[in-house]
Inverse folding.
């Protein structure tokens, strides 16, 4: 086993340093990892630092996705890998990364987590649905996309109305808003 070899961790650290310093090509590194160390047979023995390095070099991401925790899954998703596997992940942070890539927004627009739905809105997807979201942060993100400001300038939440004002929409109406900050923004932008 790798853990029984006296200097495995040091050697893997050495390989990482050689790669980072561009003295070892990616294909050479992968060849060593596969054919000399047989890393895939010993994934559970690797430190988090080494797993992150493997993710960085796109080393068998599908296999790595079967192991480890959400932190590693987030890193794999950031590489735009295994998105289909992660679209239903139990950790919302992983699903946010999936949404950042614009993947399966048709599913993620209905996600239970508001941060995932916010990310969907950033892609200007399903704004017709998200404009009526129960969470004000999602509606605020919809306003940031300049969508249905005619509706959102009358939103029950001041932050959504603030965003409408910041988008310079309905400023004359927002001069009379119940919230002082919204009124101040409207006045400042109207007279600038």
């Amino acid at each position: 086993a790798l853990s029984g070899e006296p200097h495995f961790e040091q050697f893997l650290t050495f390989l990482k340093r050689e790669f980072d310093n561009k003295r070892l090509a990616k294909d050479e590194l992968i060849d060593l990892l596969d054919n000399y160390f047989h890393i895939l047979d010993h994934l559970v023995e690797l430190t988090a630092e080494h797993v992150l390095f493997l993710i960085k070099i796109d080393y068998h991401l599908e296999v790595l996705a079967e192991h480890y925790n959400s932190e590693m899954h987030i890193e794999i998703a950031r590489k735009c890998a295994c998105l289909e596997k992660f679209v239903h992940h139990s950790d919302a942070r992983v699903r946010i990364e999936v949404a950042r890539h614009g993947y399966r927004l048709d599913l993620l627009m209905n996600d239970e987590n508001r941060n995932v739905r916010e990310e969907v809105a950033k892609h200007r997807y399903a704004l017709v649905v998200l404009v009526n979201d129960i969470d004000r942060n999602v509606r605020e993100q919809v306003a940031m996309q300049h969508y249905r400001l005619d509706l959102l300038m009358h939103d029950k939440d001041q932050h959504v109305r603030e965003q409408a004002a910041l988008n310079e929409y309905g400023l004359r109406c927002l001069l009379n808003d119940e919230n002082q900050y919204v009124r101040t923004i409207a006045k400042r932008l109207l007279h600038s």
In short: The longest helix spans residues 8-20. The radius of gyration is 24 Å. The CA atoms of residues 72 and 180 lie 45 Å apart. The chain has a mean pLDDT of 93.
